[in-house]
Every structure is written in structure tokens, then in C-alpha cells.
Design a protein that fits this description.
The structure holds two protein chains of two kinds. By secondary structure, chain A is α+β, with helices and mostly antiparallel strands. Chain A contains three helices and four strands, in the order ααββαββ. Chain A is globular. In chain B, the strands form three sheets. A three-stranded antiparallel sheet of chain B has the order 4-3-5, with no helix packed on it. A three-stranded antiparallel sheet of chain B has the order 6-7-8. Chain B has a two-stranded antiparallel sheet with strand order 1-2. The longest helix of chain B is centred in the last third of the chain and has 25 residues. The two termini of chain B are about 40 Å apart. The chains are: A alpha+beta, B alpha+beta. Chains A and B meet through helix 1 of A and helix 2 and helix 3 of B.
Chain lengths: ~160, ~190
């Protein structure tokens, strides 16, 4: 009972922290997108999710984290894909303590950044971790799912 | 400096500033507004001593009177209003296009100036008001976008979508504009 009690608290704690990290990431993302676009003049509006994945990994991640994640596991409807990160710079010197091993997504801030940034280019996505080598999983993988285009906020001339 | 009442200018205060509606005196023309009375800067429709400017001007006992006029500059609120009207015009321009996928307003020409606009993928619009002969505006607008992302967006104390009051942004913006002015003068000198 002692361990299940503490893992109950841990699960809540983990959820709270994960949510906070995502929110912090979102606040960064909504500003970061303009930084990215201003310094990448060759980038134009993406018309497919595949284009988004390509720009996200080869240019976005490269610019801000210095890494290029691999795009894998496309859904059949091409509306979902995974980003697999081999070397996560945020986790380079990190060891998760036992009470965080099952509940904390240490780099969850990245998911918020992706969600916030894409929202500012009128794309609503769900973004979450499905595995993290910090937690002992086989790979560090983020799953991104396209939800919808945010029609009302489309800038004029872009419909 | 006017020695006696009345003065050869027709003034009005309906814009919240005392403006010349008609008449001229020296370099003062319609459109100019009162910036100081007896060398004291005015505040809206009132002098530095809190007297209504028009009352002072219409009172023969105030004379001789020194009134300073200047070109009327838009207040911050007026600029906000004009920018928001431009935002709507930009959208209308894209919508009334007979051909699909039109952009919004990119250039607006008038007798005295040209307005050039650039819209980012995120919907932020940057526009500059320049001389018709001015070149290099595309580049300038993109430079300003960069300055915006570096000195405004990366400033954690700047709340999104509010008027920009970031010293570093203003400083660097001034530098970029001076640079453009210098190269423009150089170009027109070589053309001449």
C-alpha cells in the first residue's frame, strides 16, 4: 500500500509537471515560430503534413536544438507521424530519479513548442511523447497528430 | 510671434488639437497644429498653465503672443486606428480579387508617397511609408521582421499584440533605417 500510495501521488505530480512543461513550451512556441520564419526566408507555407514534418525536422529542430530527428511511423491516413530523436540535447546530462521514472516526460517542453508554433501558422496539432530513453524506453519518440486547420485566423490572401 | 489680435489664421479644435483650418502666416499652413504657446509646450487643447488655447488666442489681452506650429503628427491611438483600418483593407484586397489566391495589398501609391507591405506566414504585417523612388523595400521589410523577432518577441516583458515599447527594437530599427537612407542617397548620387 505504501508504494501504490506514493505512485498515486507521483502520477499526479508527473501529470502536473508534464502539463506545466507543455504550457511553457506553448508560450515559447508562439513566439519562436516568427523567429524561425524571419531567419528562414526560403520557407513557405506548407500544404501537406509531410512538408510540415520535413521543415520541422530538417530546419526547425536543426536551428534551435542542433539536431535533425527522424520522421517515422506515418499513419495510413497520413495525418499522424512520429519524430524519433537519437541525441536529445536537453537530456544530455540528465538522470531521472526513481520517483520520476514512470510519470515525467522530461522534455515535454518540446511538445508545447511544436504545438504553439504550428498554431501560429493556423495548424492545430496534438503532440506528445510516447517514449523517452531517459525513462528506459527503447527510443525517444514524439507523436504528432494533425487535428485541423484553424480557418478563422488564416491571414488574408492565404485561403 | 503675433503682435496683436486677431491673427490671420482660422483655427479649430475638433480633432483634439488646435489646428490651422484656413489662412497662412509665414511658413504656417492649413494642416499645421499648435505645439507651443509662448514657448511653453501645449497639452491637447490646453496651454502649459491649463488655459484653453483658443481662449488665449482669442483674447486681445494675451498679445503680443508667440505661437509655435508644427506638422500635425498622428498620436499613438490614431496610428493604431489607421493600422487596424489598413489591416481590414489588406483583407478586402485579397477577397475582391477576380483571380483566386491573391495576396493582400503589397504596394499603395499616392501622389506624395508609396506604402509597401509584407505579410508573414503568421499573419503579422509590416509596412513602410516611403518615397516613390525608394528601392530595397522588400529587403528592409524582412530586416524589420528579423528585428521584431529578435528584440520584441524574445523580450519576455513584451506582451503579445500590444504596442511595442522596446528600447532595443527602436534603437536597432533606427540603425537599419539610417543604413537604408545612406545607401539610397549613394544610389541617387551615382544615378545623377
Amino acid at each position: 500500500t505504501q508504494s501504490s500510495g506514493s505512485s498515486g501521488i507521483n502520477a499526479e505530480y508527473g501529470e502536473e509537471v508534464n502539463k506545466q512543461l507543455e504550457t511553457m513550451g506553448y508560450n515559447i512556441g508562439v513566439r519562436l515560430i516568427d523567429d524561425f520564419l524571419a531567419h528562414s526566408p526560403s520557407v513557405t507555407r506548407c500544404s501537406t503534413l509531410e512538408e510540415v514534418a520535413e521543415v520541422l525536422c530538417k530546419q526547425g529542430f536543426k536551428m534551435f536544438l542542433g539536431i535533425v530527428p527522424e520522421v517515422r511511423n506515418w499513419s495510413s491516413a497520413k495525418d499522424e507521424f512520429s519524430l524519433v530523436i537519437t541525441e536529445n540535447p536537453l537530456a544530455e546530462y540528465v538522470e531521472l530519479p526513481p520517483h520520476c521514472q514512470d510519470c515525467l516526460w522530461y522534455s515535454n517542453i518540446i511538445c508545447g513548442v511544436i504545438r504553439g508554433a504550428l498554431e501560429m501558422v493556423q495548424m492545430d496539432v496534438k503532440c506528445s511523447f510516447v517514449g523517452d530513453t531517459l525513462r528506459g524506453n527503447d527510443s525517444t519518440e514524439i507523436r504528432i497528430k494533425f487535428v485541423k486547420i484553424l480557418e478563422d485566423s488564416l491571414p488574408a490572401g492565404e485561403d | 510671434t503675433f503682435p496683436t489680435h486677431p491673427i490671420p489664421l482660422v483655427l479649430s479644435s475638433d480633432t483634439g488639437k488646435v489646428m490651422v483650418k484656413f489662412g497662412a502666416s509665414g511658413n504656417v499652413k492649413p494642416g499645421h497644429s499648435v505645439t507651443a504657446v509662448n514657448k511653453q509646450p501645449v497639452s491637447g487643447l490646453y496651454t502649459a498653465n491649463d488655459k484653453p488655447i483658443l481662449d488665449v488666442i482669442n483674447d486681445p489681452a494675451s498679445y503680443p503672443l508667440t505661437i509655435t506650429f508644427g506638422r500635425t503628427k498622428a498620436s499613438a491611438n490614431e496610428k493604431l486606428m489607421l493600422a487596424s483600418i489598413f489591416h481590414s483593407l489588406f483583407a478586402i484586397a485579397a477577397q475582391i480579387s477576380p483571380v483566386e489566391q491573391s495576396s493582400g495589398i503589397k504596394e499603395l501609391h499616392t501622389e506624395k508617397f508609396t506604402l509597401r507591405c509584407f505579410q508573414t506566414i503568421t499573419g503579422v504585417k509590416f509596412f513602410v511609408i516611403v518615397d516613390q523612388k525608394q528601392t530595397g523595400c522588400e529587403h528592409l521589410l524582412r530586416r524589420i521582421y528579423e528585428l521584431y523577432t529578435d528584440y520584441v518577441l524574445k523580450n519576455p516583458f513584451y506582451p503579445i499584440d500590444m504596442p511595442i515599447r522596446c528600447e532595443l527594437f527602436d534603437q536597432n530599427l533606427r540603425k537599419v533605417i539610417e543604413q537604408v537612407e545612406r545607401t539610397t542617397v549613394y544610389n541617387s548620387a551615382t544615378l545623377a
